[in-house]
């Protein structure tokens, strides 16, 4: 596995691979890799010839007071995990490589004069709770797609709204990229894997299990014949309310394609929850079809 930190070097490597007839799989991450990330890399390796994983903690998707500086990082551990998963190229650029130019933040981060906004699917849910977050996601992913060129790009369904934003981005801007959504990976107890799980104390981690239980309650209500989205929201919120360490941000059921709340539940749906548990903001979701 080769590690590169310059855009020109990555482009040169990937252009050479494609010129030799090999296909490229792209796995963008913010590092601190866990088994969920590993599953994306393994799938990319199984479905293509050359896998490139990106490690970049993107400052644009962190709002004021969020955990940019504290966000966990482990380059050595990430390198080992990526190599074991079959990654050929690890792209770990510094901030000034991705966002060159003078910094508006006292020299700490480079300036970004162009940003990407994906209307519709970026609004509401986490978009309402984290203003500007999905603009940051869309901007960095657009850059990564432009850098990588024709490829398949793999993203986890745990960040379901992010996946919807990226699919819309690739479609609307005609990137030569096939966006592949991959199933959520969970610990044995059911908690969705997340880099932010490291923030949880033992008691908080046990409390966080209320999130998949809430999703199960919402899904059971729908499978039992409930078609009123408000009733499903109440069922999920009632479960979360049983855990005093968990502070619900939202519990919602939306159409899986457009992320809008239908007047009456039908078709492919996604149940989503977000909550604060101690220092961590956790999200989870599950699908159901009527």
Low-pLDDT segments, ≥5 res: none
| CATH H level, superfamily name of the largest domain | HUPs
Q: Whole-Å distance between the termini?
A: 45 Å
> Number of helix segments?
10
Overall average residue pLDDT: 95
CATH architecture of the largest domain: 3-Layer(aba) Sandwich
Radius of gyration: 19 Å
Could you describe the largest sheet, including whether it forms a barrel?
A: 6 strands, parallel
Number of strands: 9
* CATH class wording of the largest domain: Alpha Beta
Task: Report the order of strands and helices.
Answer: EHEHEHEHHHEHEHHHEEE
| Integer tally of domains | 2
Strand content: 15-25%
> What is the 3D shape?
globular
* Share of helical residues: 25-40%
CATH topology of the largest domain: Rossmann fold
Strand-pairing-aware structural class: alpha/beta
With strands numbered from the N-terminus, the spatial order across the biggest sheet is: 1-4-3-2-5-6
Structural description of this entry:
The protein is an alpha/beta fold. It has two domains: 2-182, Rossmann fold (3-Layer(aba) Sandwich); 195-289, Pantoate-beta-alanine ligase, C-terminal domain (Pantoate--beta-alanine Ligase, Chain: A,domain 2, 2-Layer Sandwich). It is built from ten helices and nine strands. The strands form two sheets. Strands 1-4-3-2-5-6 form a six-stranded parallel beta sheet, with helices on both faces. A three-stranded antiparallel beta sheet has the order 7-8-9, covered by helices on one side. Strand 3 (50-55), helix 3 and strand 4 (89-91) form a beta-alpha-beta unit. Helix 6 packs across helix 7 and helix 9 runs antiparallel to helix 10 (229-240). It is globular and about 55 Å long. The mean pLDDT is 95.
